[in-house]
Amino acid sequence: DIVGSSTIVGSDGAGGERLVPSHMRRVGSGAAMATVEQSDDRFALKDMAMLFTSIDGRQTVPRAETAAGQRVIEAIPEATELHSDAQYFVSCIELQGAGRLQRSHGPNGDIWQDTYDAYDQWDQAGTKVVPKVAEHQSLEKVLTGELPLMPWVVNRLADLAAGLGAHFHQPRPAVVRQY
């Protein structure tokens, strides 16, 4: 059971396909977790789970990134680390007081309010972390020890999942051609 054996999760958002007119374009949210076996000179992906989806409302990547984080928090309470390469999400998730109020009444207020409610339940003990992970880094940086392995793995998989979420929720080509 991967949820029982991995507590590090990645989440991300992705923009839609450039060939689709912007007013028709759909963004996607994605998340991933994995277990990896590592030896001195190699590692192997043992298990992995990914989720990808579209989002309701405004179709922006920051909104998709927030939705991805929210879905992880709600679906995987066992997670102890939620890695995201989205500065918007990471910097806003731990806001308190007036900062939260401002986000909850801003353009993505509906999703932020739900995310804050879920985050508060998820992190009741104050022990969960949502670190910013450097996006789109090479495997070489992991192999040289510049980046830790698991955050890199879940970030890469979450990026793939978000891209799939955006891809599979685009309008069909016939609809775009009619436009």
Question: What would a concise description of this structure say?
Answer:
With 179 residues, the chain is an alpha+beta fold. It has helices spanning 2-5, 61-75, 87-93, 97-104, 109-122, 139-143, 149-168, 173-178; strands at 8-14, 28-38, 43-54, 81-84.
Gyration radius from CA atoms, angstroms? 17 Å
Largest sheet: 4 strands, mixed
Summed up, the helix count is 8
Beta-strand fraction estimate? 15-25%
Annotation, overall tally of beta strands:
4
Distance between the termini: 46 Å
Rounded average pLDDT: 87
Order of helices and strands: HEEEHEHHHHHH
The percent range for helix content is 40-55%
Give me the side-by-side strand order of the main sheet: 3-2-1-4
Bulk shape? globular
Structural class: alpha+beta
Low-confidence runs of at least 5 consecutive residues? none
Structural notes for this entry:
The termini are far apart. The chain has a four-stranded mixed β-sheet with strand order 3-2-1-4. By secondary structure, it is α+β, with helices and mostly antiparallel strands. The protein is globular and about 50 Å long. It is built from eight helices and four strands, in the order αβββαβαααααα.
